[in-house]
Amino acid sequence: MEIVFRWYGDKDQIPLKYIKQIPKVTGIVSALYDVTVGDIWPNNEIKHLKEKIEAEGLKFSVIESIPVHEDIKLGSSNRDVLIGNYCQNIRNMGSLGIEVLCYNFMPVFDWVRTDLAMKYSDGSNSLSFDNAKLREIDFEEMALDLPGWATHYTKKELQKYLIAYSKVDNETLWLNLEYFLKKVIPVAEDFGVKMAIHPDDPPWSIFGLPRIITNEAALDRLVRMIDSPSNGITFCTGSFGANLKMDIVKAIRKFGSLDRIPFVHFRNVKHIEGKNFYESKHPTEFGDVNMYEVVKTLIDIGFDGFIRPDHGRMIWGEKGRPGYGLHDRALGVMYLVGLWEGISKTH
Ligand code: DNO
Prior knowledge:
Blueprint: E1 2-6, H1 16-20, E2 25-30, H2 43-55, E3 59-64, H3 70-74, H4 79-95, E4 100-103, E5 115-119, E6 125-129, H5 131-136, H6 155-165, H7 170-190, E7 194-197, H8 216-225, E8 231-236, H9 237-241, H10 248-257, E9 263-266, E10 269-273, E11 276-279, H11 291-300, E12 306-309, H12 327-346
Parallel strand pairs: 1-2, 1-12, 2-3, 3-4, 4-7, 7-8, 8-9, 9-12
Antiparallel strand pairs: 5-6, 6-11, 10-11
The structure holds D-mannose (DNO).
D-mannose is lined by residues 64-65, 102-104, 110-111, 148, 198, 265, 311, 323.
């Protein structure tokens, strides 16, 4: 296991130096954030980012993400050109020795929360999701813009995509994913890259859009589609944790043993009622994910991929990107390291 930490490049208020000070963090998860979705990333810019990371004694381990253009997800007639560009990005990152590519296949929106700073009695805050509030969202007023979102739509574009997706059901989205993967996975294999799909977050349909990477059966279908370690999963314990019906530990054992989990997002969530939940402190007792069993299972299966603390709360007065502050994510790392050492020594 190698612990990595997400860094948003020069625009991130957290300097690489601080990340380097967190015990056991050896690598960085990053991306180019200013490239238009669908374009080829300038190779010199990726190289430059890599050099910056390496100058601080860290490794550029994971790209999260190279966004998949909506026209690929929609299966539009121009998808082959866009997939061609995607393949070139994979070749470029592989040639630079960046091993894992986290991506998602969520239509229009990436991860979604309805409150970016839900307040707790101890003065901290974190992100939360309330299904009723989601239903109230008015696209005319919407200013939802979360860290890591690749696209900021104009109202017109948003309407265009919502209409286009009204003709795409889950099955069509699956077929479009398969079409995409059949073209990109052979390239990933050739260039030593492991693709790792991120689950839909939350793992159910929102705004009537199709969403497919939601549970264990979906992961079964994904891995069967192309039998290759390059066709892998970003196992996000928080995203899947929102689905109370999913046995997360069993799924980690199954897909990890098949060598399909190159990357893990380590996060806990606590359900309030129904589909509503908030992002809790990392340790098991504060949420609904058994973080101890997650780590124990990863140790059992000999997990040798990358793992990063996922969203943290805002604590100690820190202000910054929702979910991506320094302090609580660093606490998440220390909790992970403690579990890891404790379990490994008594196992
Ligand atoms: C949220 C992240 C996601 C993730 C993408 C991967 O914090 O986990 O935005 O980066 O879905 O493509």
